[in-house]
TrEMBL record:
MF (Gene Ontology): DNA binding
InterPro entries: Cro/C1-type_HTH, Lambda_DNA-bd_dom_sf
Protein name: HTH cro/C1-type domain-containing protein
A Pfam family: HTH_3
Organism this protein belongs to: Bifidobacterium boum
């Protein structure tokens, strides 16, 4: 059975996605309408809702399905290390 990505896995991929889009966390917060404190908390293991993830996907120009796939790959990689 394939490991399920954790909230921390998703948060790590979102950090990489934001950085890859040459955006700061502050810019991402402003463009998505998600308060910066909320964005940071959720990227460190909190739970995003679908609308928030869709907004981040839109402002970074990365498909939501790609973000989820990368989180799954990270979970696979972490599971292989155990």
């Amino acid at each position: 059975m394939r490991p399920i990505p954790t909230a921390a896995d998703l948060g790590e991929i979102l950090k990489r996605t934001i950085k890859g889009a040459n955006l700061t966390q502050e810019e991402t917060a402003t463009l998505t309408g998600i308060p910066r404190s909320t964005l940071l908390r959720k990227m460190h293991g909190g739970t995003f809702n679908f609308e928030e993830l869709s907004k981040i996907s839109q402002v970074t120009g990365k498909k939501l399905s790609s973000i989820v796939s990368e989180a799954e790959a990270l979970a696979d990689k972490e599971n292989a290390r155990r």
